Amino acid sequence: MTGYPATHHCNKCKEQTPHREILVRKPSEYDGDTSLLGRVKLFVSSVINGGYYYNMNRYVTCNVCGTKELDNKGNEFE
Q1: Shortest CA distance to 17 belongs to which of 34, 26, 5, 30?
Q2: For residue 22, how many other CB atoms are within 10 A of its CB?
């Protein structure tokens, strides 16, 4: 995906089409635990990570057909 508007190959349209990018936060392993211990673990995890770092999934959505696909590239901390 280079330039503006970003183009990306759509598997459904079978051609290069304009796309938009959406970043969605990956859920933490502590997000679902509503117990007191789970909330403490979530707090400690956010303090250790600085409270601002979240793992993110990158999705690209075709502007023509609306197909959304996961498009994570590279390794974490690359």
Answers
A1: 5
A2: 13
